[in-house]
Amino acid sequence: MPSFHNSTLPTFLLTGIPGFEWAHTWISIPFCCLYLTALSGNTLILFIVLTEPSLHQPMYYFLSLLSTTDIGLCISTLVTVLGIFWVNAREISFNACLSQMFFIHLFTIMESSVLLAMAFDRFVAISNPLRYATILTHKRIAQIGLAVITRGTVILTPQVLLLKRLSFCHSHVLHHSYCFHPDVMKLSCSDTKINSVFGLTVIIFTAGVDSVFILLSYVLIIRSVLNIASPEERKKAFSTCISHITAVAIFYIPLISLSFVHRFAKHAPSYVPTLIANVYLLIPPVMNPIMYSVKTKPIQKAMLKLLYFKGTHL
C-alpha cells in the first residue's frame, strides 16, 4: 500500500452516521434545526449585548465572547456535516482537514478559557463587589479576550505542524463528520508517540487546568456566599452563578462522555461515538443562548425591548 508524505497529500473520507446512510437526508433535518438555533441564538445574544448600553458590563462582555466562540464552532463543522447528509460529500483534502481540525480545537479551547474567565468574573463580583468595576475594566477584559485567542493559537499550531510530518498509508476513512485530531492521527503509519504525548499535554493544559481553576473559583465563591449574613442576599448572590454552572456542565459532560466512549466502549455500535461527537460540538452552542435567555433577567428585558421596538416600527 503506498505511503503519502507531504509531496503526495492524502484525501480523507469523512463519515456520517454509520449504518444509517439511507436516512442521512432525514437525519439532516434535526441537525439543520440545531445549527439554525445555535447560529441565530448566539447572533441574537451578541447583537443584544453590543447594542444595549445597560449590558455593557464585564459579565455580558464575557457572554458575548462565549457566543462568538459558539458561532465559530458551528461554522467550523457546518459545511462538512451537512455536506455529508445532503449530497454525500465525504472527501476532504489534507490541508482542508488540518484547517478544520485547527479551528474546531481552537474554538473548543477558547470556550473552555471563556468559561474560566466567567468563573473569575463571578468570583470577583461576589467576593469583592465594590472593586468589581475597577478590577474588570474594559482594557482588562480586552486583554483577557486577546489572551484567550493567543493561548489557543500558540498551543494548537505545533499540534498541526506535527501532523504534517506524518505519512499516511492505511485507510483514509475518518470516523467523524469532521476532522478530529485523534482520528487523523490514528490513520498514520508513522510513529505517532510525539503526537499522542503532545495531544494529551494540550488537553491537560487547557480543559484539565481550566476545570481545576473553575472548581477552585466555585470553592472560593461558596465560601464568600456563606460569609454573607442575609439569607436573601446569599440566595441572590448564588443565583447569578446558575447559568454559568449550567454552561460548564453542558461543555464538560459531553467532553467526558466522548473520552469515555473512545476509551472504554470498544464494543459499542459504530454510530454511538459519532453521535456523541456531534452532540459534543452542537449542544453547547445550542443550549448556551437558550439558557442565558431564560435565566438572565437583563438579557430577557433586552430581548423584549428589541421585540417591542421592532413591533412599533412595523
TrEMBL record:
Its main location: membrane. CDD domains: 7tmA_OR51-like. GO terms for cellular component: plasma membrane. SUPFAM superfamilies: Family A G protein-coupled receptor-like (SSF81321). Putative odorant or sperm cell receptor. Belongs to the G-protein coupled receptor 1 family. This is Olfactory receptor. The lineage of its organism: Eukaryota, Metazoa, Chordata, Craniata, Vertebrata.
